[in-house]
Structure formats: structure tokens, C-alpha cells
Design a protein that fits this description.
The protein has about 250 residues and is of the alpha+beta class. About 25% of the residues lie in helices and about 35% in strands. The protein binds biotin.
Length: about 250
Amino acid sequence: MEGTFILVYYNSMNYSLIHFKEIDSTNNYLKSSYRLLDNFTFASADYQSHGKGRNNRIWNSESGENLLFSFLIKDENLLKESPIISLITAVEIAKIVETYKIKGVSIKWPNDVLIGDKKVCGILAEGELPNYLVVGIGLNVNQKEFSKDLRRPATSLKNVIKKEIDINQLKEKLFDQLVSNLKNLNKDDSLEYLRNHNYLLNKRVRVVVNNQPFIGEVIGVDENFCLQIVSSDMLLHIDSGEIEIL
Ligand code: BTN
């Protein structure tokens, strides 16, 4: 293991937390150690030397400026919901972002949280079903400058509210909320929130399904959290994949 510092504790919410000053990737850590760890183990880090984004992209984040963490799911019943766990996580993060009285928060299906047109959070779920799922979250909190080369411009909570945020307080609040809402899943509430904060709604998009590209307009999210796209005369229900906005 590459971490330079580890602290493990169990809190009243009954989850465990391991914090690293530095690690290659909190997703990698939980993936390689899942056999030894409990359901709802959180791993967080000040810095990741090999932070990973979706589609083999790199996730860069300045040390100590952002909230970088992953959590492990091993619970059999929750694993049955694995196709929607990223979206539920995005909903919980968007809700926390809104508590800072930030306007224009939305979810870009399947797993980005945006403020306006800028990305404030990315989520990468990886796993080996039916054994485990690791959900990794990078939430931009206090970082001010972001690379100009990103696929989508990024922002942070601090850039929007113009105030430094206490990352530990935010972390505790978010972890408590995530555990509590995942243990007592209310899919209807999450779906309603998602439908009311759907960045892609009415946008013209391109999506590839089974190697076949489709161009169409997003008309909503169905009851299974799939993205609904009208393409020519067809109504597509997309359950995963990259959506390109045209
Ligand atoms: C994306 O938008 O491409 C997903 C980004 C996910 C980044 C987080 S940071 C914590 C966790 N560890 C990683 O290596 N990646 C995720």
C-alpha cells in the first residue's frame, strides 16, 4: 500500500473511515482491500498520485483542497441496486451543494454534478458484482484554478460562494447523509430530485448503443433511472454510457 498516513475510526453512524495523506487512488485502495473491509468503509485522501476519472482519464486535484473519497458497498441488497448507485450518490452530493445556497446545481446523467455549465463533482463506480462495488467521488471544494484542457470547464464550491469551506465538516455531513440515505433508500425521492435537476433535459445529444450511434433529444429519466432520448421515431432508454451534447 502506498499511503503515507492512515487513520481508521468508527463513528456513530456505523461506518468506518480510513484517511490517507497520500495514496495512488482511493478507488484502487478499496478495490484491492475489499475482502478485509466492511460494508460502508470510506477511504479519503488529501492527495492522489494516480487519481482516476471515467474512461481511463486522469483525475487531478491539488493536495488538501478538495474532497477525494471512495466508499465500499458489500451489502447484498444494496448491490442489487448497483446500476443506480452512482446516480443516487450524485443526488446526495447535489443536495449537499445546494445547502451552500448555490443556485443552478444539476446532475449531468449518469454521474456528474454541475453548477451552471461547470463541473463541480465527478463519480467513478467500479466493482466486481456480486461481490462489491466501490464508488469514488471527487468534489471540488476549495481549489481555485483548474486546467484549461478539461473536457468540461470545472469549478469549486469556493469559487462560487467566495468563501473557504471546512472540508472536514463537509465530509462528515456528506458521509452521514450518504450512509443514512443509502441504508434507507428512497428511490422515488431520488428520482424526483434527479428529474428536477436533469442537466440534459431537452438537449440534443449523441449516444452510442451497442456500437451504433444515435442522435436525439433528451426528454427525461424513466422510473429505472434510465435516460430517455427520442431519436427519429424511437424512444431510447439508455442505462449507461457517455452522452455527448451537440
Ligand atoms: C469522472 O468524472 O471522470 C470521475 C472522477 C472520479 C474521481 C474520484 S477522486 C476519488 C476516487 N479515486 C479515484 O481515483 N477516482 C475517484
